[in-house]
């Protein structure tokens, strides 16, 4: 902390013979910007170092596996073969081909989760009795692993895709629903009183006051839901379908292509990370909350 | 548009979990364009009474008529300002001011009406700013502009200035009184601040608690701008302090009446009338 501040403070320091007033005026904004840049550079370096450390551990693990005669067959899990295969898969379009169906399923699952979770969350947050009535049943349902719905989903839906979208949706709906309801309960009641006094109709209340007021809570719920959905996606794709990232992992295991398996794992990680990052940026962008 | 006439009869109110009556048999009549202060200590029911007059709350018993029409709910023609400005932080200053027009399908007027209101509260150059960048006093000015944009007949003030510093508060007290007078709006103010009541009201109704009732009525007939340093102000304040002490059943520190009041030969402009 102190080091970065010192670094940041150095450049904008006014020359000794500069008029004092000017220095006083110029220093805060310039040093503020520099400090911000320095902090960003610092966190970027940390991120880079962390990823490098992870790679080193992976590489060490690969070497251990390789040198162990009983595990020699799994040597392709090491970074070298994995990245070679990954670039091959990226070049051939195989990576995009396996990702597209997965993104489609997660997208639809999340869309359903939002379509059900947000209105339900608003009902729960707005009408006290609805909240009290649904609290225990929803807490109960929430704790059931989404994957345990799998047999029911397979029976209930005519397509495998439908079943997978359902499983993702039922996993993702809870964070959206609870986050929406909690956000609405935290809203300053005087905002509603003012709106009511100024003649707001119910749809004004919903679209002009409630939704903007809780937009950040909804997006935070979506971000959590995305994390859950991305986790549920892979095991859900183990079932039935012949496309997607989960299928590719299973397929690679069956054909003993461990470099392809590892490369798919890397793809899952990168896309998951990227989607979460996008969510985070969207939240920061749409937020009206001030940090201080 | 001219201010509205308010007539409340037999207002009693008991909160759902309250043992005693928050309000007990209140009768009140306010003339169009009049400025009234409901003053009393915390818990005397003054804010409850204000909510009932505005229609934001319903009394357990009694009726409120505004210009002869029974009040059954809130209306944009009777606007309340609260202690917190309660501006919408995701909107700019002008969007906040225009929100009432939006709710009433009158956004066509926003182009002329919003700048007009912002000029009135002296925030003309702040239209595009986010309300979170404004000071507390500026935020209450935006809230005032938002309240006035629909041309209300009555403005209810629920201690909207109590969180502001003395200087800002004083400026707003004067401005609100001036604006209400210019627009002919009936002003009903709730406060526990005697200076504020003398600054803003034509008439103060002192309330006492358990149950909430009026204990005295003080007329504050000061013409024109009100300066706390003026003789008339001191007289009105002394009368109100006396009534306030009577209601509270105790004596306030630092309120000894100035000598000139007791020796004054001119007729006292402030008159106290006890309400039984």
Describe this structure in words.
The complex is a heterodimer of chains A (292) and B (276). Chain A is 81% helix and 0% strand. Chain A has 11 helices and no strands. In chain B, helix 2 (93-103) packs parallel to helix 4 and helix 3 packs across helix 4 (136-148). Chain B has helices at 46-54, 93-103, 110-120, 136-148, 166-183, 194-200, 231-248, 259-263; strands at residues 6-13, 23-30, 35-39, 61-66, 69-70, 78-81, 154-158, 186-191, 203-208, 213-219, 271-274. Chain B is globular, with a radius of gyration of 19 Å. Helices cover 33% and strands 22% of the residues of chain B. In chain B, a hairpin with a 4-residue loop joins strand 9 and strand 10 (213-219). Chain B starts with 5 loop residues before the first strand and ends with a strand. Chain B is built from 8 helices and 11 strands. In chain B, strands 6-7-8-3-9-10-11 form a 7-stranded mixed β-sheet, sandwiched between helices.
Strand order of the largest sheet of chain B: 6-7-8-3-9-10-11
Total domains of chain A: 2
The chain pair with the largest interface is: A-B, 21 and 24 residues
Query: Mean pLDDT score of chain B, rounded?
Result: 87
Indicate the proportion of strand residues of chain B: 15-25%
CATH architecture label name of the largest domain in chain B = 3-Layer(aba) Sandwich
Q: Share of helix among residues of chain A?
A: over 70%
What's the shape of chain A?
A: globular
CATH topology call of the largest domain in chain A: MetI-like fold
What general form of chain B does the structure show? Answer: globular
Q: What do the pLDDT scores of chain A average to?
A: 87
Q: What top-tier CATH class of the largest domain in chain A fits best?
A: Mainly Alpha
Query: Structural class from helices and strands of chain B?
Result: alpha/beta
What is the terminal-to-terminal distance of chain B? 35 Å
Query: What is the CATH superfamily classification of the largest domain in chain A?
Result: MetI-like
């Amino acid at each position: 902390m102190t080091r970065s501040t010192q670094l940041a403070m150095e450049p904008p320091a006014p020359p000794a013979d500069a008029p004092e007033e000017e220095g006083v005026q110029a220093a805060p904004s310039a040093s503020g910007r520099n400090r911000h840049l320095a902090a960003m550079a610092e966190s970027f370096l940390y991120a880079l170092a962390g990823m490098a450390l992870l790679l080193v551990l992976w590489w060490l693990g690969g070497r251990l596996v390789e040198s162990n005669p009983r595990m020699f067959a799994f040597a392709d899990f090491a970074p070298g073969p994995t990245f070679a295969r990954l670039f091959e898969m990226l070049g051939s379009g195989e990576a995009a081909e396996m990702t597209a169906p997965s993104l489609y399923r997660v997208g639809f699952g999340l869309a359903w989760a939002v379509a059900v979770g947000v209105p339900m969350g608003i009902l729960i947050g707005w009408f006290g009795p609805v909240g009290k009535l649904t609290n225990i049943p929803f807490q109960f349902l929430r704790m059931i692993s989404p994957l345990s719905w799998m047999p029911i989903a397979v029976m209930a839906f005519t397509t495998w895709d439908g079943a997978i979208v359902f499983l993702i949706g039922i996993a993702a709906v809870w964070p959206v629903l609870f986050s929406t309801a909690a956000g609405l309960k935290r809203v300053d009641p005087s905002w509603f009183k003012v709106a009511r006094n100024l003649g707001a109709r119910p749809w004004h209340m919903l679209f002009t006051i409630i939704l903007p007021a809780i937009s950040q809570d909804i997006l935070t719920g979506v971000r959590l839901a995305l994390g859950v959905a991305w986790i549920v996606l892979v095991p859900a794709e183990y079932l039935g379908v012949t496309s997607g990232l989960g299928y590719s992992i299973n397929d690679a295991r069956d054909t003993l292509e461990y470099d392809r398996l590892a490369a798919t794992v890397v793809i899952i990680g990168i896309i998951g990370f990227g989607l979460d990052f996008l969510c985070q940026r969207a939240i920061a962008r749409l937020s009206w909350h001030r940090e201080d | 548009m001219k201010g509205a006439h308010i007539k409340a009869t037999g207002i009693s109110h008991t909160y759902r979990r309250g043992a005693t009556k928050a309000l007990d048999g209140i009768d009140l009549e306010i003339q169009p364009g009049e400025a009234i202060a409901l003053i009393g200590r915390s818990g005397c029911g003054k804010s409850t009474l204000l909510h009932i007059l505005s229609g934001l709350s319903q009394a357990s018993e009694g009726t409120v008529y505004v210009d002869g029409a029974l009040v059954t709910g809130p209306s944009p023609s009777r606007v309340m300002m609260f202690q917190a400005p309660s501006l919408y932080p995701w909107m700019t200053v002008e969007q906040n001011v225009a929100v009432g027009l939006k709710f009433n399908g009158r956004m066509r007027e926003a182009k002329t009406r919003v700048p007009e209101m912002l000029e009135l509260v002296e925030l003309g150059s702040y239209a595009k700013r986010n309300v979170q960048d404004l000071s507390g006093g500026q935020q209450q000015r935006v809230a005032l502009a938002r309240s006035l944009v629909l041309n209300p007949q009555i403005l209810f003030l629920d201690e909207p200035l109590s969180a502001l510093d003395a200087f800002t508060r004083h400026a707003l007290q004067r401005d609100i009184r001036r604006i209400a007078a210019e627009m002919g709006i009936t002003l009903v103010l709730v406060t526990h601040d005697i200076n504020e009541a003398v600054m803003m009201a034509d008439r103060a109704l002192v309330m006492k608690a358990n149950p909430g009732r009026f204990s005295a009525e003080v007329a504050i007939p000061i013409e024109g701008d009100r300066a706390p340093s003026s003789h008339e102000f001191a007289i009105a304040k002394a009368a109100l302090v006396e009534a306030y002490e009577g209601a509270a059943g105790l004596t306030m520190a630092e309120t000894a009446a100035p000598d000139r009041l007791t020796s004054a030969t001119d007729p006292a402009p402030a008159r106290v009338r006890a309400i039984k």
